[in-house]
């Protein structure tokens, strides 16, 4: 008797994923931000935030809308690129310049990005299952990629205080 390996869950074709992303950004723009962002609700849904990065090669602002959940004061997301093989451009940009801003419903936050590691990564990865919508089998979906999917932590950025006491 031979063991049958579990096959990775199927995902929509790449052009469908990219079209949905494009339509989501367009709906956000057309509604002046009234549609497209949401707060996460454990057991119900993950949130949606608008992440602005600086292009690592172009130096130009780049915007992506990504899913997230909150872990205390931190925001947590996955650098999964629709479970495609390549790293998402926004994650490559954040690795080059980790200080950025995110828009949430009703607020903008200054944050600093980093990849979770070790026990923290394991804990945060497990928490994704509490927010439906990432995929029924997140571990199976992750096997579609040849490298581990980064768990990205966006920590509040404290304004640097100058000698005169003014925020810089």
Tally of helical segments:
4
Backbone shape: globular
Q: What is the average of the pLDDT values? A: 83
Number of DSSP-assigned strands:
6
Proportion of beta-strand residues:
25-35%
Instruction: Characterize the biggest β-sheet.
Output: 6 strands, antiparallel, barrel
Q: Measured on Cα atoms, how large is the radius of gyration?
A: 17 Å
Low-confidence stretches: 1-5, 160-168
What helical percentage do the residues reach? 10-25%
**Distance separating the two termini:** 67 Å
| Spatial order of the strands forming the largest sheet | 1-2-3-6-5-4
Describe the structure.
With 168 residues, the protein is of the alpha+beta class. 24% of the residues lie in helices and 28% in strands. The chain has four helices and six strands. The protein has helices at 14-30, 89-96, 118-127, 138-142, and strands at residues 47-54, 61-71, 74-79, 99-104, 107-115, 150-156. A six-stranded antiparallel beta barrel has the order 1-2-3-6-5-4. Strand 2 (61-71) and strand 3 (74-79) form a beta hairpin. The protein starts with 13 loop residues before the first helix and ends in a 12-residue tail after the last strand. Residues 1-5 and 160-168 have low confidence and may be disordered.
